[in-house]
Amino acid sequence: MDIKTYLGRYNLISKKIDNLVFDLEQKSDLLDRVQNNMHNQEAYIDYLRNDLQRLCDKIRKEIDDLTTARDEIKTALNKIPDEQGQLILYYRFCMGKTETETASLLGYKNRSIVTKATPKLIEEFESILGE
C-alpha cells in the first residue's frame, strides 16, 4: 500500500467510527423504547434485549478495532520529527485537503511550500514505516 493510501485510511476509518457510533446510539434507543412500550411480554423483551446487546457488543468491538487502526496511523505520523511536516501530511492525506487548503490551514500564503515539502515528507514517512 502506498503512503497516500495508507494515510487516507485515517479519514475513512474516522467516518466509519462515526457511523458505527451513530448506529450504536440508535440500537440503544430502540432497546429503551421496546422496554418501555412492551408491558407483560417479558420473554420477548428478554429475547430482543439479548439480541440487541449482542449487536451492540459487536459494534463496540468494531469501533475498538477501528480506533486502534486509526491510532496506529497517527502514532506513525507523529514519528516525523518536524511538526509542520506532520501537519502537512495529516491535512493533505489523512483529511484529504488540497495543497492550497493545507497551506492556508498552516498559515502559509502560498501553496508552493506544501508542494515542495510533500515529496520529501512522503519519503521520510516511508523510511519511518520501514523501520
Would you mind describing this structure in some detail?
The model has no long low-confidence stretch (mean pLDDT 90). The protein is elongated. Helix 3 crosses helix 4 (99-105), helix 3 (83-94) packs across helix 5 (112-130) and helix 4 crosses helix 5. It is mainly α and 131 residues long. Helices cover 83% and strands 0% of the residues. The protein folds into two domains: 1-70; 78-131, Arc Repressor Mutant, subunit A. The chain has five helices and no strands.
Proportion of beta-strand residues: under 5%
Q: Helix and strand succession?
A: HHHHH
The count of β-strands is 0
Largest sheet: none
Number of helices: 5
- Identify the overall geometry: elongated
Average pLDDT number: 90
Percent helix, as a range, is: over 70%
Radius of gyration: 22 Å
| Poorly predicted parts | none
Structural class designation:
mainly alpha
Distance between the termini: 16 Å
Count of the domains? 2
At a glance:
The protein is mostly helical and 131 residues long. The chain has helices spanning 3-37, 42-77, 83-94, 99-105, 112-130. It contains five helices and no strands.
Topology:
Elements: H1 3-37, H2 42-77, H3 83-94, H4 99-105, H5 112-130
